[in-house]
Design goal:
By secondary structure, the protein is α+β, with helices and mostly antiparallel strands. It folds into 4 domains: about 1-90, no CATH class; about 105-195, 2-Layer Sandwich (Beta-Lactamase), CATH 3.30.450.20; about 205-270, Helix Hairpins; about 280-435, Heat Shock Protein 90 (2-Layer Sandwich), CATH 3.30.565. Helices cover about 55% and strands about 15% of the residues. It is built from 14 helices and 12 strands. The strands form 3 sheets. Strands 2-1-5-4-3 form a 5-stranded antiparallel sheet, with helices on both faces. The protein has a 5-stranded mixed sheet with strand order 7-9-10-12-11, covered by helices on one side. Strands 6-8 form a two-stranded antiparallel ribbon. Helix 8 runs parallel beside helix 13 (about 395-405), helix 9 (about 285-295) packs parallel to helix 10 and helix 10 (about 320-335) packs antiparallel against helix 13 (about 395-405). It is elongated, with a radius of gyration of 44 Å. Bound molecules: adenosine-5'-diphosphate. The site of adenosine-5'-diphosphate (ADP) has 21 residues, from helix 10 and helix 13.
Amino acid sequence: MRQLLSQRKVYTKLFLFYCFIALVGLISNSLLLALLIFTVALLLWHYHHLFIMDKWLWRDRKLSPPISEGIWGHLFEGIYYLQRRDRRKKRELRNVVRRFRDGAEALPEAVVVLTDDWSIIWSNKLAQILVGLHWPADEGQRLDNLIRHPDFLHYLKQAKFEQPLELASPVNDELTLEFNIMSYGAEQYLLIVRDITQLKQLEQIRKDFVANVSHELRTPLTVLQGYLEVMDDEHLPDKVIWKKAHNVMLDQTKRMDALVQQLLTLSRIEASARVQFEPVVDVPAMLHQLEQEAQTLNRDKQHSIRFDIDDNLKVTGVTEELRSAFSNLVTNAIKYTPAGGEINVSWQRQHLKALFAVNDNGEGIAAHHVKRLTERFYRVDQARARSTGGTGLGLAIVKHVLSRHNSRLMIFSEPGKGSSFSFSIPAELVLGSKTKKREETPPH
Ligand code: ADP
């Protein structure tokens, strides 16, 4: 930057010029005329530079200043210096704003910056997806004109922002949103909107679960209580009634026990987040044992049950969890197929995977039930399932176990024809599959 212009120097220079002109005037005997001519020339010189400056600032709009000497050159450079500083500042500010916006865009929440009369200053992309605000189209619009839900308007009017507001999304009523407003900077507000749909669903699942467990436990307890209330020392039932009562009470106790067992299994599976896989799960041995148990269970219904097991097909996994998945599917087929049915259980290699399937020719399940079967406590026919001793937790357990073994339960069912429940254990958990893969690779 140039040094400050010295006033003294300028005035001295001007004074010397006038002296020189006066001298010339005196010599040529026209002092006044010489002084006038010089003053007018000086004025014109200044006007000329004023026009140059005006042209530079308003028409050329060039950054570099006009070339000039003396006081005007100094002024042009000064303006040029200020302009450059201004531009640099603007660039820095633009970067700061961009960084702020990038940060706000990266947030997993909708962000809206508002004035104190709720006009929109800025909003991010998520605000468009969650609440339908468009930026820059909605810039300057009042938020209470765009979100018209009465609860939201009331929330704004009340201006008690310590508690967030929960509301369905104005653009998608399947989403539940949480609105938070906080004051921000000078007379500005920040609206942050969070999608809490999943949280709400989890809360609902938890509530339903507690309600279901209580209901499931209360039913057998009511039966037991009913019998116990009519029996005391003075009113002992006769032998026939006692026998019936005893059987019912025993059934109900077994039902409660099964429910508690299943709940424990489910919570054990859910609680251990990290799966400790055993290197070898001898599935064929497990299925042969299950075959024996199935025959025992089959005594009443006399189905024809066929097991088709690949005796060399072992996997890595959690023995107890897999046993419970296999057993649940086989037991269900026996339970829900009318007497004399046909059940086929197979454990076979399919490509590099291991496929387990249970097919029955029972009553089948309607499609709208099929997609809900793995929900906890979901039963197609509540009354019948209870009479078969079902807890409604079996398939929920299977689903959980399978997801921990990178697998998924597949259900195909046709009412009146039968059902097929199957899943495949992926190649990386099937013993021998990797070796086989290497063998199949042709030598280079
Ligand atoms: P439950 O303990 O009641 O058997 P599950 O979760 O094992 O509970 O099964 C849920 C529901 O799915 C059962 O109540 C039954 O209605 C239906 N279901 C399961 N397996 C079969 C099958 N093989 N055939 C027909 N319905 C079935």
